[in-house]
């Protein structure tokens, strides 16, 4: 049950740019390495990879449903602190830039 609670907590905090292994460890009163190990067991992926994938999925939804938001706003709403980094990661994962994804 703690695994489910941990993953649910992270999912709820996905757009919070301050979410980290440390904040999750503090929330569940566990050592960071334990959170990392449990998270990988629960999701079959590393913590930061999970966060990035979830944020990109959220950004993709925003790109399609919020045409009034620019890329900087979408990056911030998705939990990325840097628009350039967001664009780079988005292209790496999706194969196209956020702008091209939006018009496709």
Explain briefly what this protein structure is.
With 104 residues, this protein is an all-alpha fold. It contains seven helices and no strands.
Task: Please outline the major beta sheet.
Answer: none
Would you tell me the structural class of the helices and strands?
A: mainly alpha
Calculate Rg over CA atoms: 15 Å
Series of H and E elements: HHHHHHH
Binned strand content: under 5%
Quick one: overall form? elongated
Percent helix, as a range, is over 70%
Total beta strands: 0
Unreliable stretches (pLDDT < 50, length at least 5) are none
What is the tally of helical segments? Answer: 7
Calculate the mean pLDDT score and round it.
Answer: 95
Termini Cα gap: 40 Å
Which secondary structure elements does this structure contain, and how are they paired or packed?
Elements: H1 2-12, H2 21-28, H3 32-43, H4 47-65, H5 71-77, H6 83-94, H7 98-103
Helix pairs in contact: 1-3, 2-3, 5-6
Tell me what you see in this structure:
The chain has 104 residues and is mainly α. The protein has helices at residues 2-12, 21-28, 32-43, 47-65, 71-77, 83-94, 98-103. The chain is elongated, with a radius of gyration of 15 Å. It starts with a helix and ends with a helix.
């Amino acid at each position: 049950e703690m695994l489910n609670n941990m993953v649910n907590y992270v999912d709820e905090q996905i757009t919070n740019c301050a979410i980290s292994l440390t904040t999750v460890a503090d929330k569940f009163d566990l050592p960071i390495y334990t959170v990392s190990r449990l998270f990988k067991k629960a999701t079959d992926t590393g913590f930061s990879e999970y966060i990035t994938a979830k944020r990109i999925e959220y950004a993709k939804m925003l790109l399609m449903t919020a045409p009034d938001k620019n890329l900087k706003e979408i990056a911030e709403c998705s939990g990325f602190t840097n628009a350039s980094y967001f664009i780079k990661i988005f292209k790496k994962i999706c194969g196209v830039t956020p702008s091209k994804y939006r018009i496709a």
